[in-house]
Amino acid sequence: MAYKGIAHCVRTVAGCLFLCYRRCSQYIGEEDFRERVFGMELKIRAVSEADAEELVEIYRYYVEHTAITYECHVPSVEEFRERIRHTLEKYPYLAAELDGKIVGYVYASPLNTRESYDWSVETSIYVAENARGQRIGSYLYQALENTLDAMHVINLNACIACPEEPDEYLTNNSVEYHAHLGYQMVGKFHQCAYKFGRWYHMVWMEKAIAEHPETPEPVIWFPELQEQYNRKCEEIWKRAAED
To answer: Which of 17, 22, 51, 75 has most Cβ atoms within 10 angstroms of its Cβ?
Structure first.
């Protein structure tokens, strides 16, 4: 009975926060799932405001050296902390750690703030420049998708910078990466952003992670989902220990 209870929790709630690829994840008894990456321990966890300084440093590279983000000035730690705080009011914000150091983060934000859009989100991801190529982005996106699925979110949308021709600031790698993850192109805005003395395009890509029912279940916002996760898993661990 304890095994069935744990499996059910993983499928319905525990997976919402800390599942990487199910075929290689390992449950270790805390509120996380960990994986080994090149001999180092990878942990996916929820971000807190205390992580703002580390996240800003990851983001700094993309602002100053790429057109992957069209933001032109690195936000202050306090401003970034406020962004985290605002996101976590409703949506998941997850970080990947390698041996205790944050090496990437992913989060969801509203596609539109009107209530009818509750089942649709925009996704964003950034991996530390020196940690790319280790599948960290894939682990983060899988964890985010599991979280959003548990929240009853259906539609994922990505707003992606796109060059006319690849250059030293921007390639088509992000578009190709999202296509690999199952996103499909739905729209393109031509020469809508200007950075580093040149014009860039922007594309929208989308992915449905569930069927579209006639009447969708209400969205469970992230703070409530965290509470459910902690409470239900603590009960299951207690029963498992007793058995």
So the answer is: 17
Q: What is the greatest pairwise CA distance in the chain?
A: 66
The torsion region of residue 215 among left (phi > 0), alpha (psi -120 to 50) and beta comes to beta
Please say whether the beta carbons of 154 and 120 come within 8 A.
Answer: yes
As given in the structure block, the two tokens for residue 17 are: 């926060």
| 98, amino acid identity | L
Q: Packing angle between helix 52-65 and helix 77-88, nearest 10 degrees?
A: 110
The span from the CA of 212 to the CA of 25, in Å, is 29
pLDDT digits (tens, 9 = 90+) for 202-214: 999 999 999 999 9
Q: Which three-class secondary structure state does DSSP give residue 110?
A: strand
Asked if 183 and 158 touch (Cβ cutoff 8 Å), the reply is yes
For residue 227, what is the DSSP state?
A: H
Measured CA angle at 208 (ends 203, 211), to 5 deg: 155
Most confident option among 138-147, 208-217, 229-238: 208-217
The pLDDT, as a whole number, for residue 239 is: 56
Specify which residues 143 forms β-bridges with. none
pLDDT at res. 104: 97
> What Rg do the C-alpha atoms of the chain give, in angstroms?
19
Beta bridge partners of residue 110, listed in sequence order: 121
pLDDT bucket at 238, cuts 50 / 70 / 90? low
Assess contact for 20 and 33: CB atoms under 8 A.
yes
For 2-154+209-242, CATH gives: 3.40.630.30
